[in-house]
Amino acid sequence: MVTAHAGNTSVSVKLDSARVVMGKTTTMHIEIVQDKEVNGLLLTLLGDTLNSKVEIADKGRADTAMLDNNRVQIKRDIALQAFDPGVYQLPPLLYVTGRDTIKSQSLTLAVDSIKVDPNGSIKDFKPIATVPFKLLDWVPDFISDYWWAWLAGLVLIAFGIFAYYHWYKKGINPLKPVKKRLPPYEEAMLALTTLKSRNLWQNGQEKEYFTGLTDILRVYIDRRFGINAVEMTSSQIMDKIKQNKEAHIANDQLKDVLEIADFVKFAKMHTLADDNEIAYQRAVNFVEATKPVPQVDETGKEAEQ
Length: 305
Fold this sequence. Notes:
The chain is built from seven helices and twelve strands. The protein has helices at residues 141-144, 147-166, 184-197, 206-225, 234-243, 251-266, 273-289; strands at 2-6, 9-15, 19-21, 25-35, 41-42, 54-58, 63-66, 71-82, 86-89, 94-97, 100-103, 108-112. Helix 5 packs antiparallel against helix 6 and helix 6 (251-266) packs antiparallel against helix 7 (273-289).
């Protein structure tokens, strides 16, 4: 077990087993000891994964026990699961209490592939039962002779039902020409300008403001670098950005925006006006710093991106 401290609060984590077979689960035990009046939030458990390979199969429930000196002990067990063999470094857990963030040490999980015995026999196999043709003697000839036409009709009906719920209910017309989308840089800058004009944080909507700010950056990173940032946590995004040669030069700008946004959205922190303006400017700086550089062909003309 490894323990991280900040003030009077400590966070400990350990694994039941640091090695599992792919598809099987292992339990991560989390123990938090703090003063009774302290309220905290485990940011790492807000998503469904710890990293791109290790999933949270079950988040469990917190169990609180009273200790001496007006302190409490919070225990929580979460089930982890992975379906790809390998050795994975689990990110540290982030526990936020007010303006303090406690980061536990990271753990390592080894996932082994399933070993198959080529000489083993397959048990409990039941052959698919065949349906005697005599059971269909009662079906009229115009149905049995043109079964393929009836099957095609059923497929068309099923497709129509799917199209209705998938497109019509969402207000999408698949026959309508799709308007060409702006390039990632132009789309992000337009979205940032629109967000600023809504004056959200000026009207006390700080959470909506930072949610909109990070959503714009996630979509931009997805389109610009091919990183599925929309489905990632902030720490996962930063890990990918640091590995990208075009984006890592501005990772400090992005990191500051994502960190303060997490505090506002999940820890309900109230920011100052300067913090909101600085976060917006850092988002603009990140987009500007990672703007695609136009390529020039041999004739000296800009090549189309």
